[in-house]
Amino acid sequence: MPVENTKKRIKLGIPKGSLQESTIELFRKAGFSIKVNERSYKPSIDDEEIECLLIRAQEIPKYVEEGVLDAGLSGKDWIMETESDIEEVADLFCPIPNFGKVRLVIAIPENSNIKTVKDLEGKRIATELVNVTKSFLKKNKVNADVEFSWGATEVKVPEMVDAISELTETGYSLKANKLRILDTIFESTPRFIANKKSMSDSWKNQKIKEVSLLLNGALAATSKVGLKMNIEKKNLNNLLSLLPSLKNPTISELSDKTWVAVEIIIEEKVVREIIPQMKQAGAQGIVEYPLNKVIY
Fold this sequence. Notes:
Helix content is 27%, strand content 32%. By secondary structure, the chain is of the alpha/beta class. It has three domains: 10-98 and 190-221, Periplasmic binding protein-like II (D-Maltodextrin-Binding Protein, domain 2, 3-Layer(aba) Sandwich), CATH 3.40.190.10; 102-188, Periplasmic binding protein-like II (D-Maltodextrin-Binding Protein, domain 2, 3-Layer(aba) Sandwich); 224-290, Alpha-Beta Plaits, CATH 3.30.70.
């Protein structure tokens, strides 16, 4: 008689679509290997305590609220749009593709006579985020016809609608379609969310928070590198005056007592400037290495 697998698991929603590959890469850096079968909506993961489901980011908040999923990744925009009652475990904002900050904006044709939000009175607006857009207009005491769009909203103005409510990161696509931003409704970042009942279960709570910790550690490492070097003790203070660090650098004695090894974590963008300065201060054997996780 087969033995039933009673091992505890959390059900985790992986966003299908634009966030899929970057999410899987983030989990890889966090220490999890996720493999997707093109014919299955159940990716495999090398953690027996997690079961993955591949679901559109727009649907994940509601499935988390209803308990179909214990946790998942989605944008703040879709949490607001679906008005889902969930717990936000972590803001996963990071200035990397698909995990950056996006804005939901009202955009109009460059030559439009519309000057302020008030001028949208009686106008027609297309958007994927109908509820959020309606709420924004209501707050501004504007009555307009807001219709759902399946995407490619930029091409609908001015022939089909007077304005669009669209997510944008850089605004380049809007400008390319000869649109200008009238106003910003809100800013959105990716979130790691959880079902409230799941968070009241001690085992699931701990597992979800462990995953969140590792994801945040992987994100924190994306813009940083490690540096290690050797330097004579007599030059150490000169070197330390150059080094920004998360805390204090790690300093270790070498077999030659007149020398020490120094190791730090540093923003990658400043490395090209600081390495020549470190060399000039007397550092030798400078090694730069990538990081997978940085846990604060």
